[in-house]
Amino acid sequence: MNIAIIDYESGNISSVINSFKAVCNNQNIKIRIEVTSDLKIISNSDKIILPGQGSFKNCTESLLKIEGLKDTLNKFAIINKKPLLGICVGMQMFADRGFEEIETKGLGWIPGNVKKIDNKNNQFKLPHIGWNELSFTTESKLFKSIKEKAHVYFVHSYKFIPEDEKFISSRTNYSEEIVASVEKENLFGTQFHPEKSDIVGLKIIENFIKL
Amino acid sequence: MLKHRIIPCLDVKNGRVVKGINFVDLKDVGDPVEQAKIYSKSGADEICFLDITASNENRETIFDVVKRTSENCFVPLTVGGGIKSLEDINKLLISGADKVSINTAAVNNENLIKESSKKFGSQCIVVAIDAKQKNDKWEIFTHGGGTETGIDAVEFAKKMEANGAGELLITSMDRDGTQKGYDIKLISEIEKNVNIPIIASGGVGNLEHLFEGVKYGKASAVLAASIFHYGTHSISEVKQYLDSKGIPVRI
To answer: What is the distance in angstroms between the Cα of B234 and the nearest Cα belonging to chain A?
Structure first.
């Protein structure tokens, strides 16, 4: 199997690479993991990881800077329906629109918007940084063997609000209910960072690899 | 519910762990990668390396330490010490750090926090404030506590938030290494004045000090070195204790 981690200068991806390699080593899974922006390699891979750090605007701009990348991802995920995992802003970009800095168009894969977390008049610090609990809303292959209320690591100030709740696979609570993960057929997205979520996170990565 | 983070900090010099008392009198006590692995396994919510003498010495050793740690530990790794430029930040992030903690350069070069938070995202920019009490205020120091600046700590904290810092790591110079507990007044005064998470640091000697940092300092995270480093308490002991006192922690 070939997994492509999309390299589009969207921030630090060392931890994503390390975690996938560690899971493969621990589980003795033979997989080729490539960090790439090469459209051919991306198209030919079996699974894609779409990471993303920083702002929605910067990430979408960086993605669009690589000619043909958006179309290649569209073809991979929407037409060919191969598994794709978006992490943090990588997930937020599934939305139609983001409202960080300025209104920016997303990939439009799951209808909805990305808006700032309501900090209830500064009662809650932003970013939402640290370990918070997952509360599952549907059964998901991504969370196989993960217990209700398992802790994962979050760091973000913006949240994805899908128009249709059926695409939400888990939530967390920080000043309000926040979408922790989304799922639509072959599309998976986590607001939290599985690569930084200790044993729980490594299990989620393993589940994605074994999909 | 968001849990309060327990962060063991390892002071690293030339690729080895040391712990200072009031930033001097260093004792060599081990390999940072092995220590980080132990901490991560025992439930550390985050690991922090401070390359304490980095401003004056060869920094290359820290990249190797960070790289080896990030290949073995899957909790967030924060690295500070001697960071002066976007290039320094970039090198640490590429090596595997998740966040960088910036102290001296945040004071000397205002643009660094603005530019780095824009380029790498606020989530990875921690501003480390070393402060000492002067009358009823606190003044910040740079260069590992060696240089007086005359800058007010609370005002500086507000400015760093405005410049894009994602978190503030507040160390009391008066308490660091003393094991007398955090300077709660300092921590809570800054906490009241900013809307980003605060990490309390400097002075932890027992479990109750960590409780105080969260309860009275209102810190999102508590950092300590010696009590973990010399085996006085394990991370899991800390968590059990805080849990028994009603503080939400990840167990």
So the answer is: 18
Which residues are within 8 A (CB) of B108 and not within 5 positions of it... i.e. 6 or more apart?
A: B142
- Which pLDDT value is given to residue A84? 98
The one-letter amino acid at B246:
G
Question: Is pLDDT at A33 greater than 70 in this prediction?
Answer: yes
- ipTM of predicted complex: 0.94
For residue B133, report the phi and psi dihedrals to the nearest 5 degrees.
Answer: -75, 140
Q: Indicate yes or no: CB of B5 within 8 angstroms of CB of A196.
A: no
Contact A92, A112 (CB under 8 A): no
Query: Is the torsion defined by CA of A75, A78, A82, A87 positive or negative?
Result: positive
A12 interfaces chain B, CB cutoff of 8 Å: yes
Of A12, A15, A154, the CB nearest to B120: A12
Q: Which residues of B touch A159 (CB under 8 A)?
A: none
CATH number of the domain residue A169 falls in:
3.40.50.880
Predicted confidence (pLDDT) per residue in B172-203, tens digit: 999 998 999 999 999 999 999 999 999 999 99
Q: Which of B2, B74, B120 sits opposite A130 (nearest CB)?
A: B2
CB contact under 8 A, A130 and B220: yes
pLDDT at A138 over 70: yes
Q: What is the pLDDT of residue B21?
A: 45
Domains held by chain A: number: 1
Count CB pairs under 8 A between chains A and B: 102
Task: Report yes or no: B103 and B114 within 8 Å, Cβ to Cβ.
Answer: no
Task: Record the pTM.
Answer: 0.95
Give the structural domain span for A180.
Answer: 2-209
Burial of B94 (0-12, 13-18, 19+ CB in 10 A): middle
Q: Which residues are registered as beta bridge partners of B49? A: B10, B79
Please check whether residue B243 touches A, CB under 8 A.
Answer: no
Task: Give the C-alpha separation, A114 to A95, whole Å.
Answer: 7
CA distance A197 to A23: 13
User: pLDDT tens digits for A168-211?
Assistant: 999 999 999 999 999 999 999 999 999 999 999 999 999 999 99
Q: Do B74 and A196 touch (CB under 8 A)?
A: yes
Q: For this structure, is A88 an active site residue?
A: yes
